[in-house]
What does this fold into?
Amino acid sequence: MDYSRPPWFQFMVAPATRHRLFVPERVRELLNSPSGKFYVILGSRGEPYPLVIRLRESSHQWRCFIEDGWTNFLNSNEIKNGDVVEMFYCGRHYFRALVYRKGREFKGENEVEEKDSSSDDELTQIEKDPPIFNATFTVPYIRAERLYVPVNFAREFVNGFPEYSHVQLVVKYKVWDALLKITYDHTHNIKKCIVKSVVKQMIFWENIQPGQKMIATCSFMFLS
It folds into this structure.
């Protein structure tokens, strides 16, 4: 598997992501095939749940979605709206899922456990702290008609992504397909990271007001 492309993505469970889940292009390119039967395992030793990934036409482009079996996986493991899920593609049609609830890893069966600090060395930084940032819409922010990703967050979790990547903006049941634009300097460090494309239309049609909150991961942004 080509590890020069990040083999993981994160999202927050919401009504719009309970029935099917968009797979970012950088992960889709690592799949053995862009459609077919896959499996997802919760944690490291969970039961494998079958999934079906399909190519669908969305916004005049072919995109990859996890569909059949996804809702069953969420419901069977009591994964709720508001939980953050990290999906890591392990190769050979298998995904590993880590679930975070209120900043702590969720083990399932109504149980939220603190991490065992003795095993921290065995975890990558991304597993210790789910990559999330929060933002509040202000008047200048709304007028800018784009969403800014903090540079320190981008350098830690988005470095190495292509100059343009597809992301999704989720507002309750509505999903807006957008574009993440990354600007690198001459040393290939990120100097700017913004979400553009449909932001203006989303702000207008969703009637985004100053004071509204946004929670974001590397591939999805959720507005409350």
